[in-house]
Amino acid sequence: MYAGDSTAAGNPTQQPKANSRSNKLKVEASPGYALVTGASRGLGRCFARTLAARKQNLVLVARSRERLEALALELRTAHGIEVESIPFDLARTGAGQGLADDLTSRGLKIDLLINNAGFGDQGRFLQLPLERQLQAVNLQNATVVELTHRLLPEMIEQKQGGIITISSMAGFQPIPFASVYSATKAFLTTFSLALEAEMSRFGIRVVTVCPGRLQVAPEDLENSGERKNFPGGEQTHEEVVSEALRAFDRGGGLVIPGAINKFAAFAERS
Ligand SMILES: NC(=O)c1ccc[n+]([C@@H]2O[C@H](COP(=O)([O-])OP(=O)(O)OC[C@H]3O[C@@H](n4cnc5c(N)ncnc54)[C@H](OP(=O)(O)O)[C@@H]3O)[C@@H](O)[C@H]2O)c1
């Protein structure tokens, strides 16, 4: 469940292309890998499939080993790319450092980091289990900072690469009954926008994505529970991924997918 949400592209690891309006691969794929956290379902799986179609090698991370392995097989078979799946709990303390160590020991060079894994619980702050709230803080904040800190130096050295971070519309305002979720997303948005400014001089592209409510993919409907109508509607994963990767191709920036969300975010910030 997501509160404020009520809860890409050309080869993204190449240099920005002027006037890149299409999502089709126009340049040769990088030999490096794109790492997608939360790739086992939802938006992360859509990032993985979209990048795979552009012949981008991938590292898929989430906790569900079987789902990751099935997706990796699907993508290798369909696109002839290299896909590594790494089952990993990114909500544990030090998980970002642990995953970075694992990548180093496997010799995997990451050109594009997609910080996507996340969850949000709704309810009164004091009634939600503390441990689960701290997991959200670790997953959405500490792990993202750790992974970013560990992976950026090599990107800077190579003078190419980037980071796409999935925040949320929920980060634009405090949301009662989703206090921790909205706070973690506010952190992510601020962190990622500041990083974009710091990294531009190195040619590293940083995209901050703030979706509103997303549709559930048909293959995930079974586990999604009851869904109420949401004002402003829901967006498809494909729309969000496409907008995010287009921004990446243009050199980075803030992405608020959908006209209604853009208007709402503008109204909230002004
Ligand atoms: N859905 C929305 O309406 C909405 C709106 C705005 C923003 N967002 C943001 O978009 C991102 C993706 O959301 P989604 O709707 O695609 O979510 P989702 O369908 O629930 O998928 C979440 C992904 O994160 C992984 N994950 C969760 N906990 C993890 C952990 N401890 N360690 C490693 N991986 C973990 C899950 O895999 P495992 O369970 O296998 O670990 C899964 O692959 C999130 O950051 C979310 O906050 C979502």
SSE string, helices as H and strands as E = EHEHEHEHEHEHEH
- Rg from Cα: 17 Å
Structural domain count: 1
The mean pLDDT is: 89
Shape: globular
Task: Give me the CATH fold name.
Answer: Rossmann fold
Number of separate strands: 7
N/C terminus separation: 28 Å
Structural class: alpha/beta
Individual helix count: 7
Q: In percent, how much strand structure appears in the residues?
A: 5-15%
CATH class: Alpha Beta
How are strands sequenced across the largest beta sheet?
A: 3-2-1-4-5-6-7
Architecture, according to CATH? 3-Layer(aba) Sandwich
What hetero molecules are bound to the protein chains?
Answer: NADP nicotinamide-adenine-dinucleotide phosphate
Q: Could you provide a short overview of the structure?
A:
This protein is α/β, with parallel strands linked by helices. Helices cover about 40% and strands about 15% of the residues. The chain contains seven helices and seven strands, in the order βαβαβαβαβαβαβα.
Your description of this structure?
There is one protein chain. With 270 residues, this protein is an alpha/beta fold. The protein contains seven helices and seven strands, in the order βαβαβαβαβαβαβα. The chain has helices spanning 42-53, 65-79, 95-106, 130-158, 179-199, 237-250, 259-269, and strands spanning 33-37, 57-62, 83-87, 110-115, 162-166, 205-209, 253-255. It has a seven-stranded parallel beta sheet with strand order 3-2-1-4-5-6-7, sandwiched between helices. Helix 1 (42-53) runs parallel beside helix 2 (65-79), helix 3 (95-106) packs across helix 4 (130-158) and helix 4 packs parallel to helix 5. The longest helix has 29 residues, at 130-158. It binds NADP nicotinamide-adenine-dinucleotide phosphate (NAP). NADP nicotinamide-adenine-dinucleotide phosphate (NAP) binds at residues 2, 5, 7, 38-44, 62-64, 67, 89-91, 116-120, 139, 166, 168, 211, 213-214. The site of NADP nicotinamide-adenine-dinucleotide phosphate (NAP) has 28 residues, from helix 1.
